[in-house]
Each structure stands twice: as structure tokens, then as C-alpha cells.
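If your schedule permits, I should be very grateful for your opinion on a structural question. I have a record of one protein: its chain in single-letter code and its fold written as C-alpha cells. Kindly check, if you would, that the fold set down in the C-alpha cells agrees with what the sequence suggests. I remain grateful for any guidance, and I place the record below:

***
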Amino acid sequence: MIAQSSIHDLLDKVVAGERLDLAEGLRLLESNDLSALGRAADEVTRRLHPEPYRTYNIDRNINYTNVCTAVCDFCAFYRAPKSAEGYVLERDVLLEKIQETVELGGEQILLQGGLHPEFKIEWYEDLLRDIKQRFPQVNVHGFSPPEIYHFTKVSKLSLDEVLERLKAAGLGSLPGGGAEILVDRVRREITRGKVLTDDWLNVNRVWHRMGGRSTATMMFGHVETLAERIEHLERLRQLQDETGGFTAFICWTFQSEHTEMADIPTAGSHEYLKTLAVSRLYLDNFANLQSSWVTQGYKIGQLAMLYGANDMGSLMIEENVVAEAGTVHHLTLEQIRGAISDLGFQPRQRNVFYELAEHEAAALGPHSRHNQHSLPIVT
């Protein structure tokens, strides 16, 4: 049993701006003093974000295909290449989804799919060019690191060339999907045919060196140990020290229904809030943490804003992957804005780079459009 004074000493340390090490991070995650962890995470968040507002985004998760060569026991969305339930969205349908997003005030789309065995780099270039020709103002937050790594294998091209070509065709930023837990023991146990830890990180490393930005994620509450959760955070923090290219971190609990891992109980709100708070305390070089109301629902999603999150995430006009696993939470724009304002903050729309939307920036005055929070590299 960890002495409470020891936990409080660690929390005082991190609130003062000192960096936690692996052992200290694990000690916090092993603690069940949720209120103390939440207070400390909130203090750190308010130090990093003293502004009177909290942010949200409007986007749409468009899954262009569910056909996937990887076998992930935790995924209820994918279909094998020869499955009769496999699909590839028709281009006009995909463009119509983007049109609807724009009409609702969205400035970006989240574009992800399975690891399709037949599509080479030219298919993705054509897709990006079609999108940017029709919607030049929309940022394409697209293709998770497992997809990018898969493109290199199917097209027999280097990672640098794949990313350079996608960027030239209109790719704006990379989502952090497919991270799960960045520990190879875990990855080998829950998936086959999918990128391992070092290559997931290296996709982001190369993209960051090209000047690109990306998000980082963690899906927890399955076969990983608490120490492996901290190892995941440590690998992200190390890469962020190196490149500074991550804009935000998002964690959520594994949703097991309809998956091959349905026997694993879903982690509850206590575990979610605790892990979120420790993530905020450990990831001292990440400016932004998102709430995961998509998996947690309205109340816990709102409470996350007091446990380390400074962003309510996206309106999420469309979401398919989590929904396939049996978790379906829907919030309206008014509910998202209300969740923020009820906590005493002003709700402000932002883009994937954490720049305020044009109309929000105008309301706050000059220079606020590029009010993207960045942190100094900690060594």
C-alpha cells in the first residue's frame, strides 16, 4: 500500500513543474486517490491553459473502407478482404459527407480505413486531390500510422516518399489511431498483421521532421498492465521531446462488445478519469488533452475537463468504429458548448492544430487565430 504522503509529495512535485519518471508515474496510476489526482491534473491544466475558454472541434470521421488485412481481436469494425460485408465508399458518397460537414461549420474531416490489400499510393493520392479540389478549405486529418506503414508495404516505397507524396496531394495532418498500447507484448497479443511500436512511432517521427503535426492516442483497459500504460506514455513523451510534433493526446477505454475480447469487462469511469489525470501529469510536453465523451458519455466527458482535459473533442458528426463495438453516445453542438460553459469556461471552436476558428478569433481580438499552445522541450 502506497503511503498517502508519498502520493501527495509526487503530486506537489509535478504541479510545481517537475517531470515524473516511470516509477513515479506507475505509483500514481496504482493510487486510488482519484480526487487528489484530479486536483493536481486540473492545476496543471489551468497552468498550461490560463485562458478563460476551453475548446471543441467540428469534424466527421469518414471510414473510406472497412476491408482490412490485419486481424485485431479488439475491433468490431473491420472485415476480411473476401468478406461480403466489406465496403469501399463511392467517391461521390464520400464527397457528399464532406459537404454536409462543411454546411455544419466543420473545417476538417478525419479520414481513416482498414488496411486494404489492393490500393496502392496512387489511389490515396487521387482521393486526396479530389477532396482538396472540391474543398480546398478543409483539412484532411487522415490515415493513421498503421495505414501509412501499410501503404509503404503495398506500394513498395519508403516511408519518406509515401508521406511526401500524400502531403503533396493534400494530406494535412495525421490522426493517432492504431496506437492501442505502444508495447510490443500487448500488440502481439491482441493483433496480427499490424505495425509494431517502433514503426508506429517512426511514422510520426518522419512526418514531424517534414513539418507535419499529428495526434497521439491510447486505448486502455484490456490486456495491458498499469506499468505498460506508463510505458506507452513514456514512449510518446520521448518522441515529443525529440520532435514536438504532437498537438494533442486522447485516451479512451476499450469497448469490448461484439469483439473477440468481449469477455474482458469494460473499464469504468473511475479508471478512465484516473488514467486521464495521470496522463496529464506525465505528458508534461503535450499542450492539449481531449475528453473522450464518445466512449464515456456526457457527464463523464464533461467531468474529464476537471481531470486534465482542456478540450471536449469533436462534435463527431459520424463515428463508426466505436459504435460497432456497442458504444453509442451522441452529443449536439449545443450540449458540447453547454458542457464547457457550465464549468465556467467560454466554449470556443478550434481546428486540429488548436488554432481558433476564424469567427472565434475575431471575437477574441487580433492574433488569437494562431493561439496554438506549444510547450518548450523538456530534457
Q: What stands out?
A: The longest helix spans residues 226-243.
